[in-house]
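Quick note —
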Amino acid sequence: MPKESLPIKLDPFRFADNAIRLHGVLPISQLQRLCLSLYKDEGEIDVNLTFGVDEEGLRYVRGHYDTNVVLQCQRCMEPFFYEVIGDFALGIVSGEKEAEQLPSRYDPAIVSDGMLNMPEVVEDELIVSLPLVPMHNPKQCQVKLPLVAGSDRQSESEKENPFKVIELLRSKRDPK
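Predicted structure written out below.
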């Protein structure tokens, strides 16, 4: 069964009033801002969206996304897969004043020209879900840190004392 693409632009007010549910995919390669943080722009994002009106009369969209992205480890510079799964709840509003009045359970989705760009909404959520410094699990990374047990680094007692020469000179000068 082929996967359906999510609509790019939609009327969130109409979707919320009609309690519409959407399930579809977004190709990662179409999300340019997200691609700047990735090693490769391959794959797709599985997205579920539920539009509705809550008990206070506020229109909302709740979403769930699931994907695997390819990041570059900042320790060894090798690519690795990173699973990104998340949920969001957005209050659908027409402007900044309405956004300020939303309850804390909703982040604002400000609608301009009566349409909401769903790929941008999902892209924003994915970007904030990425790690600040992407790295492999230390056991899987090609670079071994000096603090890891079994390292080839010399212990403190084995290192040569840089003041050893001064100590030798002092011992030669001091008659005993």
